[in-house]
Amino acid sequence: MLSTELARRLLDAGLNWSPLPGDRFVVDRPALGEEVFYLADMTVEVHTFVGGSVIGFNGVTEWALDSVNLEETLWLPREDQLRAVLGHDFVGLGMQGREYAVVALIEGAPQTFVHPDAEEAYGLALLAVLRGRG
Questions:
Q1: Pairing of strands 67-69, 73-75
Q2: Alpha-carbon distances, residue 53 vs 28, 60, 71, 97, 123 (angstroms)
Q3: Which residue did the predictor score with more confidence, 53 or 111?
Q4: Angle at CA 31, nearest 5°, toward 25 and 32?
Q5: pTM of the entire structure?
């Protein structure tokens, strides 16, 4: 799973989130720690209002949290979502020893990003691509 530290760096680099069912996220508040939530119909949903969007927790959590502003959340994209955002800059995924190696085009040149976790390798590649695009 993508780390919150890398997810925060991706957000800072310009990665936008349009929440969909199945997406993973954390509430970016110290009191909630690293508890991961999943958007799901009927239990954790996005509600859009004139003033912005909130994520509503529909009575399924043990603690008192009705909703949070979307800006208070941090998206933890999955491998397929990271690959989709890489788009035409994605070259391939392989193994380098026991680690995953993602090859991406950074300003037209292939670079390899290696990590024991595939999503982290994709995230590192996407971070470099976003910085190159910006």
A1: unpaired
A2: 16, 20, 8, 44, 25
A3: 111
A4: 25
A5: 0.82
